[in-house]
């Protein structure tokens, strides 16, 4: 499978890069940058090595000319011929119509937008080279908005395939091609891995990179585009090796650090909490609580990932771990990715822990003023033993008296670099010569255990593989959008029974683009269809406080129906919601559908998830929806996801815009991963300098510049 992005689709710049242009300008001493130069920087393409590792999405074969007479509908082709006619037509719609003729036949070009310069290039009598998609139109063969340029009979044809790069609207391919070509000459691609490190049969890094940018004429396009080509294998291996090395280094560095040894005390907070737990723990919860407890008791800082399907009950596990820290007088921070989730955690933890005399502080970006000041003071003095908030807030401006345990919830962005950065920030929290906090990460996007074990070389793994009892399994139904009105009737019935409904729409941001029905329109439609029902709307462009207000109404049951884009985060717990409708379900990834579905079925009532799709479905889309209807087991979904999806879409990486790996693919490249795992320790031992260079080359890119 080729990369999932559409041809020439804009690539998402790393989040940290949003402010890059302004800083770049400063950094360059006031030099003014052109729009494409700024666009380059926004994509993180700054250093020569960044450009050299910006690998084409696909290639155009411009090495051959096709006789016009041989062109068929939907062919991608390049032809060359004389312009026999060039006129502006105004009758139906203003457009430039151009006839081109070669020895074999005639082709019509149509330009709906054009400039005088285009007319000049396409003037009658000129010889032109044209490339584009062929349409068998009403007037014969035609191309709409082809690429074209004037040539002479002896203008040479390229001898290599032409690369098409991931780009953005402000960055023309031609500009990017030039920038890459020039960077390739300078990029430091020399080999520093000792002989025997790289799997046999793979090219040197320089050769691999050059081949990927400019494959020779005979190369297999299929192997290049599905990433099985040896040149691709080399890049993937290097990336995996760098990650294994970085993790091994981190592990070694961690081994030198000391954390407080945290154990439950007799009659302490954790014992009292245990005595009043609102429910009996599942066997799986008991087991992971033990695993975490054993880590906390050691002086080696914990670095553990708790995987558990949506609804498996991770929050109580985190709360129990927190009480162990508190028993020893250490503080605990619980970080959630969004304010809504942070608020929900806060409420739950207050409900559980306040009766035990614990002060819980709540910090989010929108909490300002006196309340915030007081909370910060409580945290600094150590009076607040537990602090709940969004990642950003806790990481940036909170001073703890002494932080013993940090819990990061819904941490799906598990790129090695991000994880190491988080660890570093934590290390700075308690200052030098002070004990380090333990770290527990929680994720609801499980990846198969064997895969996780080999990839996450510096993480311990705990798994909640059991749901709390008493859940009625969610029934998932897949309908064509034509059945919408029946679904709306069903919603009315749910609401009449006092239950609540979630309606999920794809992103508003993308709607202009993809012609999706946006949340606002759906909100209006459903409000009209269900008179007397209070319908809320939640989307990404709302201010955090507005979002929180809507969420509060919904959680309290005052709002019966909530129309939302995917901002209705994973992990939000509204037990009374019993019906979820996901519109354009075919647009979502499997992992994301599963996350969304997890928002219903948390109470005892039988819950239904309706997946609405718009025909026609792609084969992958069909398989995804089928998988959703067939299973509710997150691990099974993860396995199916691996089998169905294309490379680079691993565990929700696509929706978070933060790919786990840039080049390699854990499902397909297991052999390379195993090889990297095997050689990493040897390299660190025998060639530490080469190992460091490898880490710097592959992990020290892009964001470094932005941070600088
Ligand atoms: P997640 O793993 O998705 O974060 P939560 O921690 O939000 O799951 O738990 C989902 C729901 O299940 C919550 O309402 C929680 O109180 C409840 N719950 C958790 N553990 C148990 C248990 N052992 N028995 C019954 N209910 C439980
Ligand atoms: Mg949760």
Overview of the structural elements:
The chain has 708 residues and is α/β, with parallel strands linked by helices. 40% of the residues lie in helices and 18% in strands. The chain has 27 helices and 22 strands. A seven-stranded mixed sheet has the order 6-7-4-3-2-5-8, with no helix packed on it. A seven-stranded parallel sheet has the order 12-13-11-14-15-10-16, sandwiched between helices. Strand 21, helix 21 and strand 22 form a beta-alpha-beta unit. The longest helix is centred in the middle third of the chain and has 26 residues, at 230-255. The model is unreliable at 1-30, 508-517, 646-659 and 701-708 (pLDDT under 50).
- The low-confidence runs, each spanning 5 or more residues with pLDDT under 50, are 1-30, 508-517, 646-659, 701-708
What characterizes the major β-sheet?
7 strands, mixed
Beta strands, count: 22
**Count of helix runs:** 27
The percentage helix is 25-40%
Strand order of the largest sheet: 6-7-4-3-2-5-8
Coarse shape: globular
Describe how the helices and strands are arranged:
Elements: H1 20-27, H2 35-42, H3 48-52, E1 58-60, E2 76-89, E3 95-101, E4 106-111, H4 116-121, E5 127-133, E6 135-137, E7 140-144, E8 147-150, E9 162-164, H5 173-186, H6 205-213, H7 221-225, H8 230-255, H9 269-275, H10 283-297, E10 303-308, H11 314-327, E11 331-336, H12 339-353, E12 359-363, H13 369-381, E13 384-390, H14 391-397, E14 403-408, H15 416-429, E15 438-443, H16 449-455, E16 460-464, E17 475-480, H17 484-496, E18 500-504, H18 511-514, H19 519-529, E19 535-538, H20 544-555, E20 561-564, E21 577-582, H21 590-597, E22 608-613, H22 619-630, H23 634-644, H24 653-656, H25 670-686, H26 688-699, H27 703-707
Helix pairs in contact: 6-8, 8-25, 8-26, 9-11, 10-11, 22-23, 25-26
This protein binds adenosine-5'-diphosphate and magnesium ion (MG).
Adenosine-5'-diphosphate binds at residues 279, 281-282, 285, 308, 310-316, 444, 468, 571, 573, 602.
């Amino acid at each position: 499978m080729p990369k999932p992005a559409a041809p020439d689709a804009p690539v998402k710049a790393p989040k940290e890069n949003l402010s890059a242009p302004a800083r770049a300008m400063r950094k360059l001493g006031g030099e003014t940058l052109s729009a494409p130069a700024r666009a380059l920087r926004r994509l993180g393409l700054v250093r020569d090595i960044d450009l050299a590792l910006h690998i084409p999405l696909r290639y155009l074969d411009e090495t051959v000319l096709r006789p016009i007479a041989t062109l068929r509908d939907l062919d991608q082709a390049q032809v060359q011929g004389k312009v026999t006619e060039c006129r502006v037509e105004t009758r139906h719609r203003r457009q430039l119509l151009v006839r081109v003729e070669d020895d074999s036949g005639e082709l019509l070009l149509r330009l709906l937008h054009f400039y005088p310069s285009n007319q000049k290039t396409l003037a009658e009598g000129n010889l032109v080279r044209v490339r584009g998609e062929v349409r068998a139109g009403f007037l014969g063969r035609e191309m709409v908005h082809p690429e074209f340029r004037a040539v002479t009979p002896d203008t040479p044809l390229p001898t290599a395939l032409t690369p098409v790069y991931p780009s953005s609207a402000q960055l023309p391919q031609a500009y990017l091609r030039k920038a890459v070509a020039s960077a390739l000459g300078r990029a430091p691609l020399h080999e520093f891995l000792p002989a025997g490190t790289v799997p046999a049969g793979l090219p040197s890094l320089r050769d691999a990179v050059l081949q990927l940018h400019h494959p020779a004429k005979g190369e297999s396009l299929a192997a290049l585009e599905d990433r099985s080509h040896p040149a691709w294998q080399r890049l993937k291996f290097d990336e995996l090796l760098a990650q294994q090395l970085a993790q091994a280094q981190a592990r070694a560095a961690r081994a030198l650090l000391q954390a407080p040894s945290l154990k439950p005390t007799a009659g302490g907070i954790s014992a009292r909490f245990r005595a009043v737990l609102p429910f009996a723990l599942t066997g799986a919860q008991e087991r992971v609580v033990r695993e975490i407890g054993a880590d906390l008791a050691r002086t080696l800082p914990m670095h553990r990932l708790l995987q558990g399907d949506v609804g498996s009950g991770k929050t109580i596990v985190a709360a129990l771990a927190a009480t162990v820290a508190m028993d020893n007088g250490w503080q605990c921070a619980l970080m959630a990715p969004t304010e809504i989730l942070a608020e929900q955690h806060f409420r739950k933890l207050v409900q559980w822990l306040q009766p035990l005399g614990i002060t819980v502080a709540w910090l989010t970006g929108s909490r300002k003023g006196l309340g915030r000041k007081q909370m910060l003071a409580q945290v600094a003095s150590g009076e607040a033993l537990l602090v709940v908030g969004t990642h950003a807030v806790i990481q940036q401006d909170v001073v703890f008296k002494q932080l013993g345990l940090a819990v990061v919830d819904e941490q799906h962005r598990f790129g090695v670099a991000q994880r190491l950065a988080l660890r570093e920030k934590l290390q700075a929290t308690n200052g030098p010569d002070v004990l380090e906090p333990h770290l527990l990460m929680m994720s609801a996007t499980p990846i198969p255990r064997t895969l996780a074990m080999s990839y996450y070389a510096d993480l311990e793994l705990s798994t909640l593989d059991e749901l709390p009892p008493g859940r009625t399994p969610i029934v998932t139904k897949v309908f064509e959008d034509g059945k919408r009105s029946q679904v709306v009737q069903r919603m009315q019935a749910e609401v009449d029974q006092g239950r609540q409904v979630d309606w999920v729409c794809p992103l508003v941001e993308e709607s202009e683009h993809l012609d999706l029905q946006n949340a606002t329109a759906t909100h209006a439609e459903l409000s009209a269809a269900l008179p007397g029902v209070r319908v809320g709307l939640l989307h990404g462009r709302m201010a955090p406080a507005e979002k929180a207000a809507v969420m509060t109404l919904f959680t309290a049951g005052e709002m019966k129906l909530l129309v939302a884009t995917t901002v209705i985060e994973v992990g939000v717990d509204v037990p009374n919601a019993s019906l979820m409708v996901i519109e354009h379900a075919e647009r979502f990834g499997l992992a994301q559908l599963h996350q969304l579905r997890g928002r219903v079925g948390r109470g005892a009532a039988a819950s239904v998830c309706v997946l609405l799709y718009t025909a026609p479905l792609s084969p992958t889309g069909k398989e995804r929806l089928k998988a959703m209807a067939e299973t509710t087991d997150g691990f099974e979904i993860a396995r199916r996801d691996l089998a169905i999806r294309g490379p680079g879409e691993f565990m929700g990486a696509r929706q978070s815009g933060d790919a786990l790996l840039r080049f390699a693919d854990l499902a397909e490249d297991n052999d390379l991963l195993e090889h990297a795992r095997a050689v990493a320790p040897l390299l660190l031992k025998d060639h530490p300098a080469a190992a460091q260079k490898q880490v710097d080359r592959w992990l020290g890119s892009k964001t470094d510049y932005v941070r600088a």
